[in-house]
Amino acid sequence: MKKILLFIPALFFVPVIFAQPKPEPYKWSFTVEAGTNQYDGDMSQFYNDLIQNTEYQLSYGGSVEYTFNPFIGLGVEFYHLPLSAKKEDNFFTSNMNHLNGYFSVNILNLLSKDMDTKWALYGTLGIGLAAYNSVFHTNDADPGTSTGIRLAQTIPVGVVWEYNFTKFLALGVKVQYRAHNKDNLEGSTSYDYKGVTNDYIELGTVHLRWKLKTSKKEHVRNLNVRSFYPEKDMVTALQAKTVADSLQGTVDSLRRELDIVKPKIEKIEAMLSNIPAQSTQTYTDNYKKTTQTTDYTDRAPEEKIKKSNILKNTSKIRETIQDTDDESFGYVFFEFDETELSDDAYAIIKLVAKKMKTDPSLKLEIHGFADYVGDSDYNQKLSQNRSDVIKNVLINLHGIDGGRITSIGKGRLTNIKTATRLNRRCVLYLL
Questions:
Q1: How far apart are the first and last CA of the chain?
Q2: Domain range spanning residue 243?
């Protein structure tokens, strides 16, 4: 029996190993209890019916508990347990008091993390001290012999069934089996069968539990597992937010570095623009990467792209694209999910810049598109970024006033549900 009682506490520690409680809910509560007991020893209970015992020998007590999480709590309880029992002509009476600590486990929450009910079922296990003063009588005329105050170890095992009818009050029933490590509760050595059996008490009480500070906070005894612990996807979202905040800090740092480097780059570009027939390096303001650009005027004859050829190719492409617009000046195409400009694209942009320099009254609209593949929001941003790339090249490389250029992202082409290079484009309109 002792081995079993010592093994049970190990089971109650299992929920604690995995528990990571949130500090917000309040966790203290206390009970007031009253009921009756049944002596289980070497004598029989000394009364004829239950009513007589509960009327004159009422058992009562209470407890204070700290509930860590929806699984487990730790508390202290006290009980006054009057006893009387007899065997043949012998009988005894005793005033016994128990003080013990205990663990409680919410069995329903162990079974389901989504349990949404006002009912609660707890298992309890404790250990403490029993103080008793027994008076032993040999017959009805014997005034009895008192043992004085004695101490024994008690191990209570119990079940509690509660109903939470408000946020701060619960009504419950508790049934306990209280074991002792001594066999002399009767107060006579003639009934001390030490090593053979010990004395026990069966206790049944009704209690009222008061959960503290529920007007200000939620109480943990009113919560199920899911409402007490954060969801996994919420934890993932918080982790993602932390990463995003870190990346934002990196982006801000790069922008500050770019603000320092940009004037130097512009100075170098101004110097290089005065040197004809030379390849140059340009840096776009939005993408912070180096892109090789080539002046097509000094290529070998077989590599030269003349203005007439570019415009001729643009006309052919316009006929191929389904949503044609004869008022467009040119097309700039992109690879899948890219904003990087090709050599052909730089040639078209250069022609546009030359025309705008020749006629200062001209203005430019750039309409960016993406193909049908992918999310609409993502493609909207992608089409806008493609338009902005062309605008930045015109401003930073060719010196065109930004006020003359309008960059518009049109998003994905919904009427052409394909993923072709012709759909990944920007259309240039000179107005």
A1: 97
A2: 230-274
